[in-house]
């Protein structure tokens, strides 16, 4: 997914971009009308909208309630959130758990399916234990960004899961040249050299991608946008390193090229086809041996048809996470030869996770 818009059509196609996150601190009705009006909305083409709302304490709870109601009219609105939540928490909110509870409760008061999220940075996680466990359990999404590309990303994800036990994690990545520290000490703000910046970006994104493949995080979110329109990015932090604008743009393009290579490395092949080598036949006297017949398979609770459409993790979506679960089951089942009745990715309910299940997933993924 992307925080912001302004990308070229080609980049959006290459990244298979369906979800977008934007910010709007103004009146909720105007925010959604400007963005999601079916005819004129600036981001109406995207499937799910994650919206950062006002950080004014006097308005936040009321706006959350308005968004809860408006999300019925604008079903693409998937989440409301607070960007840089920690500074909002210690500043405007004054670490007020009662007010935070009101904001979260209002988010779901009219539409229980509207998600509540917040952006956090890895070096802020140890500073949030004064948020009550009741409130932390109500958070649906954590957008986890890196202040330091060399951080222990896997450990940070685990810490989020402990702090916010019911939250899904979206890993944030700065896919551009910025003034990042080059050591693991957060207090050390010596900027990276260009080559180091690219190396640390590549390594951090590969680790985040591995976490996504292993279903430890739900998605990766890039900031800023303007993929293919890098000349429109605010490069203040990059320029502060002593780079020229051209250097900042060149370095950013290299990072984005690396990101595409990494993503392409995990994409399933769209050219996979099934070519049976022979057609089995049964004579009138043939009988089927029941030893290998599976009479049932695990279905999604509350979504009875989801599994049959390639939804391996039962979240109501058919996406690359389901593919990664299929691949995991496919490998664990010795390339589709082991029979079980509780595979996540047994979409045909025959006890096997094989190429036929992949084909079914791909059909609904592309539809």
Mind explaining what this structure looks like?
With 367 residues, this protein is an alpha/beta fold. The chain folds into 2 domains: 2-266, Glycosidases (TIM Barrel, Alpha-Beta Barrel), CATH 3.20.20; 294-366, Type 1 dockerin domain. It has 12 helices and 8 strands. The chain has helices at 9-14, 28-36, 57-73, 85-90, 97-109, 133-137, 153-163, 194-213, 236-239, 245-266, 320-332, 355-366, and strands spanning 2-3, 19-23, 48-52, 77-82, 115-121, 141-145, 168-174, 219-223. It has an 8-stranded parallel β-sheet. β2, α2 and β3 (48-52) form a beta-alpha-beta unit. The two termini are 19 Å apart. The relative contact order is 0.09. Residues 183-188 and 269-295 have low confidence and may be disordered.
| Name of the CATH class of the largest domain | Alpha Beta
Could you state the CATH homologous superfamily of the largest domain?
Glycosidases
Share in β-strands: 5-15%
The largest beta-sheet arranges its strands as 1-2-3-4-5-6-7-8
The CATH architecture of the largest domain comes to Alpha-Beta Barrel
**Topology pattern, helix = H, strand = E:** EHEHEHEHHEHEHEHEHHHH
Number of helices: 12
């Amino acid at each position: 997914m992307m925080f912001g818009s302004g990308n070229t059509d080609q980049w959006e196609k290459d990244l298979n971009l369906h979800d977008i996150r934007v910010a709007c601190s103004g009146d909720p009705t105007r925010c959604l009308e400007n963005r999601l009006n079916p005819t004129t909305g600036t981001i109406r083409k995207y499937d799910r909208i994650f919206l950062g709302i006002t950080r004014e304490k006097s308005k936040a709870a009321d706006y959350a309630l308005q968004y809860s109601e408006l999300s019925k009219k604008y079903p693409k609105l998937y989440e409301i959130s607070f960007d840089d939540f920690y500074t909002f928490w210690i500043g405007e909110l004054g670490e007020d758990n009662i007010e935070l509870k009101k904001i979260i409760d209002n988010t779901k008061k009219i539409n229980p399916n509207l998600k509540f999220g917040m952006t956090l940075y890895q070096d802020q996680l140890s500073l949030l234990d004064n948020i009550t466990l009741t409130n932390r359990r109500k958070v649906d999404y954590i957008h986890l960004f890196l202040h330091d590309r060399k951080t222990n990303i896997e450990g940070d994800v685990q810490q989020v899961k402990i702090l916010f036990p019911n939250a899904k994690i979206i890993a944030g990545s700065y896919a551009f040249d910025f003034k990042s520290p080059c050591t693991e000490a957060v207090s050390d703000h010596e900027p990276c050299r260009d080559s180091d910046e690219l190396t640390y970006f590549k390594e951090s994104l590969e680790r985040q991608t591995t976490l996504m493949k292993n279903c430890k995080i739900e998605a990766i979110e890039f900031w800023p946008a303007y993929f293919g329109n890098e000349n429109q990015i605010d490069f203040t932090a990059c320029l502060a390193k002593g780079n020229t604008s051209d250097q900042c743009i060149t370095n950013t393009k290299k990072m984005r090229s690396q990101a595409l290579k990494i993503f392409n490395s995990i994409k399933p092949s769209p050219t996979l086809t099934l070519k049976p080598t022979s057609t089995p036949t049964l004579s009138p006297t043939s009988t089927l041996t029941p030893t290998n017949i599976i009479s049932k398979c695990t279905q999604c609770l509350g979504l009875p048809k989801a599994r049959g459409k390639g939804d391996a993790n039962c979240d109501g979506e058919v996406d690359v996470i389901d593919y990664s679960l299929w691949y995991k089951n496919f490998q664990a089942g010795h390339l589709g030869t082991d029979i079980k009745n509780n595979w996540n990715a047994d979409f045909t309910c025959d006890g096997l996770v094989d190429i036929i299940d992949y084909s079914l997933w791909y059909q609904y993924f592309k539809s």
